[in-house]
Amino acid sequence: MPNPILPLWEYIPDGEPRVFGDRVYLYGSHDRTGSDSFCDYKLKVWSASVQDLNSWQCHGDSFHSRSDADHESDTAEWTDRELYAPDVVCKDGKYYLYAYIVGSRGCVGVSDRPEGPFKLLSKYKYDESDAGDEGIFNDAGVLVDDDGRVYIYYGFERSHMNEINAGNMFEIVKGSYKPDVIPAGNNDDDFFEASSPRKIDGRYYLIYSPKKGSRLFYAIADNPYGPFKRMGYIIDNGKDYPGGNNHGSLCCINGQWYIFYHRMTNGTIMSRRACAERIEISPDGTIEPVEMTSLGFEASLDPYKVTPAEIACVLKGGCFITEKNSFSRPVTNIKTGSVIGYRYFDFGDDFSGTTMELCLNVSGCGCSSTVHVLIDDYENGEEIGVCRVGMHDGEYKGRIKCVTGRHAVFFKVEHDYSGWFVDAFKERNLFDLNEFVFRK
Question: pTM for this structure?
């Protein structure tokens, strides 16, 4: 399944991936289509077999802070605010949902199944002196350690943690509060929010969003109370792409580690979609930064199958992905100088000619333009041909050089106008890109 990893119409940001049994579950916030604010009043759960990451199943709504046509509110007793950034852990055969509710005391839900639905167990119980973050527990992440002890990490602008009573899973252990588990500094990599703990090969990791919010950083400690040492960033959703906040975590699936994160769509920072990239964890525990790709769980993309434009991982020059309806998400606002990029296609090593054909399916905007096709790099890569796009909806074709092997592909767009009114076309939307395919 390429990035984004869920169907076109689904918005699941703040992803917390968890493997339970033979399935990987993705828990996260739920963004609303066309909304001008973050998140929703419900949570949803998706899962896939660890043997088939191309087939994700929606398990429906799992928890509610407001009633809707099919569900009663789980939190009506004290709040009806939006649900942000949940986490789920398994303890003694039950599954516990930790829900952050905007401006309200958070809560814990419980289910016999990892997909839920989750029934309210309790609000967090604590003495005021034992909880940081004004007792809200912003973006809480939970770790069940090997010895059965349970820890919760949370915070906004400062990192906090506590131990949870493993006997009831909602009571904060008195005297366990520890502030600044990631020591504060004055750098772009200082903690901001989005705590997500993991234990890997005996080391404690804390994934978090820093002040530079388009990145996900990680920190490591040799015990759950820290202090955690800031190690660097793993992924940046704003690198050559319309960025925004970021939130996600690590997950090992069939021996392969992934970083889950989200990207923005619809020209806002509100419509966020789940993505994943392969990573490697070195023997010393460090993680090298990875680039955004179009791959998701794929090893490579097939250029000879139709590629939806919306899996672009490079969008420069003002263009962005937008939702027209449940079936269509083109790249829009394509102007002269825009770059649309995809990593990576495997063109194979077998061909009988020197050229192949690129076919673009576009929605016209009354302009004429030229699409320059580059491989490997959008600035210094080899240009293998061009495809001219006209004013109307439809298919446009261009003959390009036949290439072999694995390559990133970039479309660099320029308008075809000169003369008196050339400046007027610099800010024109030239066309919308729906999909494309290469043909030998």
Answer: 0.96
| Amino acid type, 67 | S
Q: Tens digit of pLDDT for each residue in 218-263? A: 999 999 999 999 999 999 999 999 999 999 999 999 999 999 999 9
Q: Rounded distance, CA 384 to CA 73, Å?
A: 57
- Catalytic one of 10, 14, 82, 163: 14
* Beta pairing, strands 271-279 & 256-265: antiparallel
Query: For residue 205, which amino acid is it?
Result: Y
The CATH architecture annotation of domain 16-279 reads: 5 Propeller (2.115)
CATH superfamily label, 307-439: Galactose-binding domain-like (2.60.120.260)
- Respond yes or no: is residue 77 known to be catalytic: no
The residue from 193, 236, 277, 432 that is catalytic is 193
The beta strands (E) that lie in 65-186 are given as: 83-91, 94-101, 107-111, 119-123, 141-144, 150-154, 160-164, 178-179
DSSP 112: S
Phi, psi of 422 (to 5 degrees): -60, -35
Give the separation between CA 282 and CA 369, rounded to whole angstroms: 46
Give the Cα separation of 384 and 351 in Å (integer). 16
Cα Rg, the chain, nearest whole Å? 23
Distance between CA atoms of 313 and 88, rounded to whole angstroms? Answer: 29
Catalytic annotation on 193? yes
Q: Would you call the peptide bond into 304 cis, given omega within 30 degrees of 0 as the criterion? A: no
